């Protein structure tokens, strides 16, 4: 291959003799792990002349429960890597920014001690830990989704018990302690929010803070909020008023409900939206309340069937579609940005694989192929409902000082990137506008919404084009977490105007961009050596399937055959 590549670079063209061999090597049809398949290739056709508008970077949004991991050793490392995924700023959402405590990090817990009171009940504001968290974001060019919550101990209507010590395997309901209750004084709460926004402007500047999203609470329709729907709406009025008083141009939104396809979520969501449009504001007495963006969550539902993890992407897409439908039913709100505040294959990032076997997809390539396939369909569902999808938050970060590859829903383990992070690196390389992919493939967004992926695999693509390149992400996904046979793919890119193009083919599968498989081959060491850690870090990066090469374009069309393993993802980038 190096000799052929040098020939291409030196001559600037490929002779007919070399063309077939170079394409075969570059696109994987004879790579070492791909076997010849008698099956008919899946024909994926990309038309660069059919523009579908800008590819919004909805994937550049991340979040996690434990805010104090932000500035710890592996947290800072991972945030640096996330910030470098692409040219656009990455948005970060974390819980517990107003929780009382000393900043000790633990699973499903975080604290900043931003608000306490003296013996006379006078407020004491302390922004030290919040600043440490936000400084870590800002230093990396990241944008906080400033979650206003949860309730400080001194303001809670039921402060005790307050601190919890949950761990995987414990009753999940044990986490909902004094921080989940309404305030005993809404005016003190409002002043706390006002002072926080005002401090942020003083520290970071008005222009910077105007680029953030401020939101109230998390999943208030379940036990994260121990008040009533009406009390949450009242709290929102006081919160929005405080944010806008401190910075009239700030963006405020909510309500961050769980999946709108749940009856309890839909009821809460519609009550909130009705109030925004026609309710009486608890602060001003006027009709309605400020809102600049709308948020809700969407989760899948894996389970173990006959010893095999079976995902359910359809459940997640139904949540998303129902949320879009609800927003679209309010004409005055339909065009507001929508942020899917948590958008994941299931619900509990800190519920480890060792205790929750349905989560055994997280370390390997199923998580990465699921992510590729599901994110592509979010664009399609938003387009079909005519709504403005701005972002979809992946609720997965890292868990400091835990066992290697324990099976949390995270992007890295002990500073080593997992395969799923490489899908986001692929997304970051996709620039410009979306372009058309043929619609006669086995699945589309509506079919997966209704049926999930239970029959043949979902082999499909997302494609983009800018002035000097085109990128095509291709995945081979199935709900069943088994390593089935690979599939031959025939990728045809139409509408190229260049006579020759530089082609790079990146891959995530069992052998490429996969630290987990390397770790297992090492014998799954509980304490890898420094040399092993270096090898794992290298394996955790996005890797090329083969060396890049120049390829001649015939009549504006480039056809590329390759084998794509089950749960594999390819990114083909063509530059000119």
From TrEMBL:
Stored Pfam families: Glyco_hydro_39
Any one Gene Ontology BP term: carbohydrate metabolic process
Domain of life, per lineage: Bacteria
Residue ranges occupied by any Glycosyl hydrolases family 39 N-terminal catalytic domain in the UniProt entry: 43-540
Record: active site: 219 (proton donor)
SUPFAM superfamilies: (Trans)glycosidases, Glycosyl hydrolase domain
Keywords: Glycosidase, Hydrolase
Molecular function via GO: hydrolase activity, hydrolyzing O-glycosyl compounds
Family: Belongs to the glycosyl hydrolase 39 family.
Listed name of the protein: Glycoside hydrolase family 39
Species in which this protein is naturally found: Spirosoma linguale (strain ATCC 33905 / DSM 74 / LMG 10896 / Claus 1)
